[in-house]
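User: Hi! I have a protein structure encoded as tokens and I'd like to know what sequence might fold into it. I'm fairly new to this, so please keep things simple.
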């Protein structure tokens, strides 16, 4: 990890640790890792997308716990998703302000983070964050921690995750490979 990204990660960590919806520390680590792979294979703006990957879910820290936990209720689920996008903006501004990011870069990062739910963007940078966010779901530690958080069996979660859609070939390739490994694990 580059020094500046390490600084952003360290500042993001206290927020990520407050997420109750799922293990956001593990999740964000995987989204960061997937983003590095996508950047290598698909292009995209690294200076913008690495911070966007690390910071995309910091907004959950300010979503009321009862809303985070009540994801089975579709109204609260959507409310939580909306709020995490809204709260992310101020937190990202504070964190990036401390690490010396320029305002125009910060605005662009926020723009991309805000587009990771409820949108079907045409811009590659926005698509890459959505892809990295979904690919992360298939990695081992996150997959089993999600199964626990969502009270599902690995098989149920596998059948649900299988429906994930992707913008890029690289994302689909990594996702399918990882998900096949999960299938082998629970079938054995
Ligand atoms: Fe999110
Ligand atoms: Fe996420």
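Assistant: Happy to help. Inverse folding works backwards from shape to sequence: for each of the 188 positions I chose a residue that suits the local structure. Here it is:
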């Amino acid at each position: 990890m580059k020094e500046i990204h390490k600084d952003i990660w360290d500042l993001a960590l206290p927020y990520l640790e407050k997420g109750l919806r799922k293990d956001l520390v593990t999740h964000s680590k995987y989204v960061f890792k997937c983003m590095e792979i996508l950047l290598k294979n698909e292009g995209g703006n690294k200076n913008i997308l690495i911070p966007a990957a690390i910071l995309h879910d910091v907004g959950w820290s300010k979503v009321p716990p009862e809303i985070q936990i009540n994801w089975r209720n579709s109204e609260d689920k959507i409310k939580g998703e909306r709020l995490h996008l809204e709260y992310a903006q101020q937190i990202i501004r504070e964190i990036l302000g401390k690490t010396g990011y320029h305002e125009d870069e910060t605005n662009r990062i926020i723009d991309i983070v805000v587009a990771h739910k409820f949108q079907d963007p045409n811009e590659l940078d926005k698509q890459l964050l959505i892809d990295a966010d979904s690919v992360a779901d298939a990695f081992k530690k996150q997959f089993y921690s999600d199964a626990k958080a969502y009270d599902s069996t690995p098989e149920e979660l596998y059948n649900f995750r299988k429906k994930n859609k992707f913008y890029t070939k690289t994302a689909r390739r990594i996702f399918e490979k990882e998900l096949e490994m999960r299938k082998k694990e629970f079938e054995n």
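A useful reference point when you look it over: The two ends are 35 Å apart (CA to CA). Feel free to ask if any position seems puzzling.
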